[in-house]
Amino acid sequence: MTADAQPKATLRRLKRRSQFLRAARGNRAGRSAFGLQVMASKDEALAGIGFTVTKKVGNSPERNRMKRRLRAAAAACADDFLPGHDYVLLARREALSRPFAKMITDLSGLIARVHDTNVHDTKANDNRTGAGRGPRNATP
């Protein structure tokens, strides 16, 4: 290791189902190649990361390739993950063909997005009236 090289942030792996379920209750954001779920955790020292690839998205070699690409993208964005949070990346079929540089920029943007509280406040105060937003059986 040279003197100029910065040490990469370390991430702890999520391994238990309960950790994945807890992250699913948190904030979410998505792109075409993957989705991101995040929830504050009890471990304040490190950020936790988990990967999910369901059988719906492909056969086992494809799923393994998706997981490898997601792990590499997470390692590249390791400094962006906040300590004290658990993150779960959900792979989609697009993760196979997406350029790797684009995956990294998408992931770093999603990390910033799930921690931005203003994004969620604007949806809560949305008062648009359109299809599906009026009274159920309104009569003229």
TrEMBL record:
This is Ribonuclease P protein component. One of its GO terms (molecular function) is 3'-tRNA processing endoribonuclease activity. Its EC number is 3.1.26.5. Belongs to the RnpA family. InterPro entries: Ribosomal_Su5_D2-typ_SF (IPR020568), Ribsml_uS5_D2-typ_fold_subgr (IPR014721), RNase_P (IPR000100). It is an enzyme of class 3 (hydrolase). Keywords: Endonuclease, Hydrolase, Nuclease, RNA-binding, tRNA processing. Consists of a catalytic RNA component (M1 or rnpB) and a protein subunit. One of its GO terms (biological process) is tRNA 5'-leader removal.
